[in-house]
Design a protein that fits this description.
DNA polymerase, domain 1; 3 domains; three-stranded antiparallel beta sheet; 11 helices; 7 strands; elongated
């Protein structure tokens, strides 16, 4: 059948609209669904498995539509890839992926992966948007020099924020790890930087615990300034002291999580940072005569649970 005869055959099938799946070239099929609607399908076998995918819709009046000649050209390209052992469907899907070129492209890829795992990505976003993006974001990831990284960290150190400098270095390292994973760079220059030598040094963990009289003093002030600390906030602070949970674990909780009979508070896995459920005991108020940490603090005497 000549190309002209094939073209006429395609027009006829699409016009009639009867469900049809007909071959017009090796591996190339026309899939007609209804009058005026048809798609070009590539069928092939690779590594012993039969596969198929749509390369485009049939048509002649739009650049995104494929006529017979355009579909044949696409089929020829697919056959060339198959001869080289390349899966044409997978190769097309790869081409549709966003291109990672600049530091910002890689940073957004890193943040996207983080959003699928944790809920507190705003911490990473804040560090990137406030400290890094304006200096490195528009530069090609393979053109960034060690001096560029050092300058960004030094700006933060000069502002007197060593802990933020550590966060900046950690973020840059993770972005360069993404770039290395996707073969955008051959050498991870950020890996040579260390927290102790180039950033803010080792993080110092706080060993400060509130003593009982300090808690009592704080809540006494809260009660004196009810216009600034309303009842709802007051109760929330009390419960945070009793339960020792993270702020949003408590504030996003529902009454169904509280069992007053058993005196327990259940943290759901969907609400915790670690995505692990936990049962927290609700202790009865009692007076301590020794320094207490947050999770051990009790209710002020003037506050009574009903």
């Amino acid at each position: 059948m000549s190309i002209l005869e094939q073209r006429n055959r395609v027009d006829e099938l699409v016009k009639l609209g009867n469900p049809t799946f007909e071959n017009f070239y090796p591996s190339l099929y026309l899939d007609v669904k209804s009058p005026g609607k048809a798609s070009w399908i590539i069928r092939y076998q690779l590594y012993g498995k039969r596969r198929q995918f749509k390369i485009g819709s049939y048509g002649t009046d739009h650049e995104e539509l494929l006529n017979l000649e355009g579909a044949i050209k696409a089929a020829i390209e697919c056959r060339k890839k198959l001869n080289d052992g390349i899966d044409p469907k997978l190769d097309i899907e790869r081409q549709k992926q966003p291109k990672l070129i600049t530091f910002d492209d890689c940073a957004q890829k890193f943040l996207e992966k983080k959003r699928n795992k944790i809920k507190t990505t705003y911490i990473y976003e804040r560090v990137y948007n406030n400290e890094i993006k304006s200096h490195l974001g528009a530069i090609r990831i393979d053109r960034i020099h060690s001096y560029d990284i050092d300058n960004v960290i030094q700006r933060v150190l000069d502002s007197g924020r060593p802990s933020v400098a550590n966060q900046v270095l950690l973020f840059i390292k993770r972005v360069f790890k993404i770039a290395t994973k996707y073969k955008l760079i051959t050498c991870n220059i950020a890996q040579e930087f260390s927290q102790s030598e180039d950033a803010g040094g080792a993080d110092k963990k706080r060993q400060r615990f509130l003593e009982e009289h300090e808690i009592e003093d704080a809540f006494s002030i809260f009660r004196e300034h009810q216009h600034k600390i309303p009842t709802a906030s007051y109760i929330a602070l009390v419960l945070l002291l009793i339960l020792g949970t993270r702020k949003m674990e408590l504030l996003s909780a529902k009454w169904q999580q509280v069992d007053l009979k058993r005196q327990t508070f259940k943290l759901l896995d969907t609400a915790t940072k670690t995505q692990a459920s936990l049962i927290v005991p609700i202790e009865s108020p009692r007076v301590h005569r020794r320094p207490v940490c947050l999770s051990q603090a009790t209710l002020p005497d003037s506050f009574k649970l009903s």
